[in-house]
Amino acid sequence: MSFENLNPNDRVMLEAMAKERGITPEALYAEMGIVPKPIPVQAPREDIVVELGPAPAEESHPLPDIVPVPPIADAPLPPEYKEEDVAETTTTNDICMHCGWNNNNPVISVTDNDKLIFLQSFLGQKLFSKHYSIMDGKISFMFRSLTVKEIDAIYAEAFKFREQVGIRTSEDFYEFINRMRLNLQLIRFTSPNGLCALPEGLDKTTNRQAASYWQEYLEKESYTQEGQSLLQQINQYLLDKVLISENIQRIAYSLCSDFNKLTVRLEANVLNENFWKTTGLPL
User: Fold this and answer.
1) What pLDDT does 186 receive?
2) Residue among 257, 243, 238, 236 nearest 139 (CA)
3) pTM for this model (two decimals)
4) Are 167 and 149 in contact (CB under 8 A)?
């Protein structure tokens, strides 16, 4: 495929995909077989002759006399001025220019247990996971991180779905991606109706270390649907059997978002030795 055949929306989505994977758009184009747009090079013209005349004589201009300016006295502060007012009115950039993080969002708290579990996962090349409990333990969720191949599969599904169904806005595109992420990241759901243990991996190709996979799980539940991709079947199963109500789905979205923010903060502090000292591990 040529770069010129991509519409503006395709280019925006590909740049966002490259940013999430931490690579340049050109590297992503090369992986997907997209030929970049060539830069035309114009050959120099030999029929143009420029004749340069003699350089003009430099003119000397005397410098003006420098007159010292008296210092300006500070204007008196209003009587109602307070020092703390400055901190309240001081503004900063809302969005980080490096990572896109909204600085107005509250900072996700990190416990020593979070640090220990993350370190064990990180050093052991395992996927990080965490359990969240609400309503005095009556409802709980457990989320996991994804593999790079699972993320690639989600984006490939999103591009395919956009062509088939017609996702018209970038908001709808990322809404689809976030839903697919939630479907794979949720591995435990407990409610008064019982425990629902979900598979820990999409398939063996994208997650070799998982103990269970969605294809075998759907076959066991007699929920396979011909003509639909595996990710679409997972989505339908969760809507029918697990995240049935809008309230439960929104709560799951919110907690999964907190889990991803926690993961980002832990990753950002990998090189900060002081951050991990509270765990007592010899790092």
Assistant:
1) 96
2) 243
3) 0.63
4) no
Residue 136 gets the label, from left (phi > 0), alpha (psi -120 to 50) or beta, of left
Sorted by sequence, the CB contacts under 8 Å of residue 275 that are 6+ apart come out as 115, 269
* CB 278 within 8 Å of CB 115: yes
pLDDT digits (tens, 9 = 90+) for 103-124: 666 777 889 999 999 988 988 8
257-264 CB contacts, 8 Å cutoff, 24+ apart? 258/108, 258/132, 259/130, 259/132, 259/143, 259/185, 261/105, 261/108, 262/108, 262/110, 262/114, 262/130, 263/118, 263/128, 263/145, 264/101
Residue 21 per-residue DSSP state: H
Long-range contacts (CB closer than 8 Å, 24 or more residues apart) made by 33-37:
33/1, 34/1, 34/2, 34/3, 34/6, 35/1, 35/2, 35/3, 36/3, 37/2, 37/3, 37/4
Q: Is the pLDDT of residue 231 over 80?
A: yes
Q: What is the chain's length?
A: 283
- 274 phi/psi in degrees, rounded to 5: -65, -25
Helix (H, G, I), strand (E, B) or coil at 36: coil
Q: Is the pLDDT of residue 182 over 90?
A: yes
Residue 269 has pLDDT above 90, yes or no: no
Contact at 8 Å (CB) between 4 and 37? yes
| Tokens encoding 136 | 């005095």
What is the DSSP-derived secondary structure letter of residue 132? Answer: E
Residue that has been written with the tokens 């003009």 in this structure: 56
* Residue ranges covered by each domain of the chain: 1-36, 116-277
